[in-house]
Structure formats: structure tokens, C-alpha cells
Amino acid sequence: MMNTILSSLETAWLIFLVVMFFNVMIFVHELGHFLAGKWRGAYIDRFQIWFGKPIWQKEIKGVKWGIGWIPAGGFVSLPQLGDMQGIEGEADIPQDLKPLKPLDKVIIAAAGPLASLLLAYFFAVIVWIVGKPVGELPTTTIGYVPADSPAAQAGLLPGDCIRAIDGQPVEKWMGNMEGVRELIAMSEHEKITFTIDRPQADGSVQQLTIESGYRQPETKWWQRTAMRQVGISPLAPTEVGNIIPGSPAEQAGLVKGQQIIKLNGAPVYSPLPILELTETGATVELTLRNADGSEVTTSLTPAVPTNWQGLEKACPILGFTWGGKSKTLETEHPGVQAQINQSFRWMGETLAKVAAPGSSVGMQHLSGPVGIGNYLYQMLEAENGWKLILWFAVVLNVNLAVLNILPLPIVDGGHVVLGTLEIIFRRPVGGKILEWIQTGFIFLLLTFFIFITFKDVGDMVGTDDDAPAKLPTPVFSK
């Protein structure tokens, strides 16, 4: 009971931290508008975090500060900047309120995105100082290719080293949108082209170009469509870990630290083919390399643990854990401007993939506050998660700055455009047509927000089939 209470409190604390993280970003962005408005002499009615009717509000020096009931974004009510009552609610506008100069409108509108960009630089400096965990997998060697996968049908083999995908050089399996996994997922062609190095028996390397099809696993209607996959898995350690007493592994004489180098006489580059064959219950022949470099071959017949008998999803096992996995992540200290540039590049590449006609990436694959919040929650649970949060804050604030400066109705970039047009034509741009455009864009924005939130929740819920089998710690009777 106590463990349940502590777990619930920890979850509530992490959720609180995620919400506060969002609010800090929103506050700084809106503070940019607020300070610019004060500087340019604009009338400010309200400063509110979240939309909707305020659940808390306090007036300080003529400005109403509040928190709305709809947890999405925030705003500074500046009636002279434009009619935004459809989103922000009615404002108390003085009768003698004079219009702002167009240059003042441009400065106030651009101040929000500028504040977000400056906050990104602030977090980038912290990341440069404290560092961030490296979550990349620095290998491009294929460890496993399922027999029924598109990769197997194309001729890719375990041990192949991938040098490029669709002509783009690759140096890691995943990370920074430049890994093997990401380049496959975001491919724009019906066939994905792999440039590989294939090791030969005589020690030489054969360079090949192989075209592979892809699959997109089925998902439920409430989830996002899956990204492209070809079925390959990366090179992974095949070191024997702890031996379970009474297991087939103990009976065969396996020793912790041995390296499994062959399965039934064929080279092995990943635990996956061993696990796959083991689940069938068939006898396997393992060739192992000892610490002194000598090799030994032994046969094992998998068995179902005694305490798994009759349990759903129980299958035969060999009876040892896998070793050789690093328990700690390396830390890197990327430069400040390098982080900013990378964030801009990621955003540009993502939007380009969404717009590309041959890509499987669509608007549905973008994340809203719920999806981003879930991602932040997972970061906080990870080792050195606070460092990951700081790094992700750089990416988020750059995205917030760019999205808000786009020349679209009701966002900051739209106000910049209107102010600029007013400077050029020497008269305000408005009228019924502009009102209709803004109202239509509000409707589209709210519809998209609801759609993305629905997909975010759908991905979080998943299905029962996605859950791994929950089985007790295996025990073998002697």
C-alpha cells in the first residue's frame, strides 16, 4: 500500500514539473510581448496563462494577471494590436484609446518569438555547461534480419554495414534524425536504397547497393499510422550474463562473460535470432568464445521454467540473462550555436517531410501539448533526465519561436505582416475579409489542436497487445 502511495506521489510530482515547464516557456514568450508593449506605450488589458475564463485573476497596476481553465498556451491582451476577442475574450478598452503606430505593432508582435529564441539560447548555455546524455546508438551494422521482412526479401544480411540510405551517409543507428532508423522512417521513395559493406570470408569487404521495400505496421484507428520499417535490427552484444540455477544454460556449463559467436554454425550478431529460435523449443547449438580467446561448442534444449507452467505467453528459455550492456550514458557538451542550428534544421526537415508527396510523414505525426508532455514525462523518468529536459527545452523554444513568427493569421507573424503592410500602404489593413480569414484560421487551428491531442492520447493508451508479457522471475526445479 505504501509503495502505491509513493508511486502515485512521484507520478503527480513529475506531471507537476512537466506542467510548470510548459508554463515557463509560455510565460517567457508572452513576457516578450508584455515588455515590448510597455516600452512602446501600448495599452495592456490582461496577461493570462492558458485560455478560457480565468480560474484565478488579480489586477496589478491596471493589468489583469490570470490563469485560464483551458491548459493550452497563453496571451497578452493588446487591443491596439488587433481584434483577438474570439480567442482572448472581451477586453476592457478605454474610449479614448488611440491606435498604435505600425512600427510599434511590428515590434510588439515580434517580441514574443524573440523572447522564445533568447530562452532557447539560455537553455543552450546551460546544456553546454552541464552536458547532455548521448542517446544515440553508434553503429550501422545490421544485427538481425527476420526471414519474412522486406529487408530479407531484398537481400540484406546480418553483419552488413550500412554506409548510406537513399544516398545520404549514415554513421549511427538512431539519433538526431540522421540515423538508420530515422532515414528509413522518413524515406520518400517506394524503394529504399541501401549502400552497404558486406564482409567476406577472406577478410575483404564487398560494396553493394540494395533496394528494399518497406512495411508500415498496422495501428488502431485512434492511433497515428506507423512509420516505415524494413525489419532490420542493429548489432547488439551477445554476452552471457547471469545464469539461472537449474536452467538448461547451467546444465550445459555456460559461464558468465562468454560471447556467443555462432548459432547452429552461423555467425550471430544479436540476441534476437537466439531468442526467436529458443521460443520454439528446438535444440540449439551455440559456439561461445571464452575470456582467453578459446572457443567451445555446446547444445542446449530450451525449457519452460517450473513457475511458468500454464501461464499465458510463457515460452521456453535457455536460462540466462544478457550481459555486455552499458549501464551509463556518455555525456557530450554541444556548442551553444550548434544546438540552435540543429534545432532549426530539425524543424525544417520535419516540415519538409510533412509537405513531401512521397513521404509517409504527415500532419498527424506532429505532437501537441499532450504528446510533448508525455515525452517530457518519460525524460524525467530516465537516467539524468533533467539534462535531457534542458536539451529538449532548446528544441521546443526554437520551434515555438519559428511557429509563432510564420506569416499566418492570429499568430505573431500575422501581426508582423499586417504591421508591415500598414507601413507600406500608410493605412491599416482590416475589414470584413480579414475578420473572416482570422475566424476561419481560428477554427482550423482549434480543429487541428483537437485532432493532434486525440492522436497523442491514442498513442499513450495503445492496446493490450502492445503490453509485454508479465511473468514472474523464472525458477527451474533441480
Question: What does this protein structure show overall?
Answer:
This protein is of the alpha+beta class and 478 residues long. The protein folds into 3 domains: 1-48 and 81-135 and 334-463, no CATH class; 142-234, Pdz3 Domain (Roll), CATH 2.30.42; 239-323, PDZ domain (Pdz3 Domain, Roll). It contains 12 helices and 16 strands.
Radius of gyration: 28 Å
Which range best describes the helical content: under 10%, 10-25%, 25-40%, 40-55%, 55-70% or over 70%?
A: 40-55%
Side-by-side strand order of the widest sheet: 6-5-7-8
Structural class: alpha+beta
Continuous helix count: 12
What does this entry show, briefly?
The protein is an alpha+beta fold and 478 residues long. It contains twelve helices and 16 strands. The chain has helices spanning 2-39, 85-88, 102-130, 150-154, 180-185, 248-251, 271-278, 336-355, 369-381, 385-405, 412-425, 432-461, and strands at 46-60, 63-77, 132-133, 142-144, 161-165, 168-169, 192-199, 205-212, 233-234, 239-243, 259-263, 266-267, 284-289, 295-300, 320-323, 331-332.
List the helices and strands and how they pair.
Blueprint: H1 2-39, E1 46-60, E2 63-77, H2 85-88, H3 102-130, E3 132-133, E4 142-144, H4 150-154, E5 161-165, E6 168-169, H5 180-185, E7 192-199, E8 205-212, E9 233-234, E10 239-243, H6 248-251, E11 259-263, E12 266-267, H7 271-278, E13 284-289, E14 295-300, E15 320-323, E16 331-332, H8 336-355, H9 369-381, H10 385-405, H11 412-425, H12 432-461
Key terms for this structure?
12 helices; elongated; 3 domains; 40% helix; four-stranded antiparallel sheet; Pdz3 Domain
